[in-house]
Amino acid sequence: MLEKLELSKSGYYDYVNRKPSNQKKRKQELSEKIKSIHEESHEIYGAPKITAKLIQSGIKVSEKYVGNIMREIGIKAHYIKPYTMTTKDCDFSSKLRNILKRNFNPERPNSAWCTDITYIWTQEDGFVYLTSIMDLYSRKIIAWKLTRTMEVDEVLKCLEEAKARRKADNPIVIHSDRGVQFTSKKYYDMTVGMISSYSKKGNPWDNACIESFHALIKREWLNRKKINDYEEAYQKVFEYIEGFYNTVRIHSHCNYQSPNNYEKNYNSNKLN
């Protein structure tokens, strides 16, 4: 056989026993690390975030190279579709002003919050409703409530929780759309001492960060499996927000840190 292939015995055994090159070994090791990071992110991270995690661990690598390896080994991120508006404006009064004006990058925590409501479909209980409040500094979800109705009182419980958790001293800008929950007298009474800001009518981009978060939780977590009922929906929302989004998931806005770590570093630097 070797004679037909015009190979010598020494040449054949040299080929069989040849050790992988350093470049090939590095690529294999990198592929395993990329797989591991992708799995730890619940198959959510794409090349930019995986590259950031590798760099944080001391591995110098380009985003393009990571993307090439991901394609070779057949893994990809769960990409987010553009968000859609889930609540309707109910108050078109010119008295409701847009104070925030899309300033989504405040310099410190508790400068600006944003809030919104989104729908989650369940097989047995129909729609349930997630109210979330985000601190724009870190993109952290500082309070959330999953309810069976969209009553104003249910929304106010979420705001009560946010105020109790954060205990902010200075007036906070709180931004929302013009939905009936956010333009009610009860909401007005609860936000006394805060600066209420409202999106322009029919303009979800004025509240882009919280709209984007609600698209994110659905795309990355909730829409991947059918949800049976309210209890299962609650468990999944809790897992995502408290067990992943706030604590583990890295954000480009936060210099590829989790919201919790980003705020922690802010507080540490403030003390120094």
Description:
The chain is 41% helix and 14% strand. By secondary structure, it is α/β, with parallel strands linked by helices.
Overall pLDDT metric: 86
Fraction of residues in β-strands: 5-15%
Structural class: alpha/beta
The number of helical segments is 9
Instruction: Spell the H/E element sequence.
Output: HHHHEEEHEHEHHH
Which residue ranges are poorly predicted, with pLDDT under 50 across at least 5 consecutive positions? none
The shape is elongated
Give the secondary structure arrangement, pairings included.
Blueprint: H1 9-16, H2 22-40, H3 47-56, H4 63-73, E1 112-122, E2 126-135, E3 140-147, H5 152-166, E4 173-176, H6 185-190, E5 195-198, H7 208-220, H8 230-245, H9 259-271
Parallel strand pairs: 1-4, 4-5
Antiparallel strand pairs: 1-2, 2-3
Helix pairs in contact: 2-4, 3-4
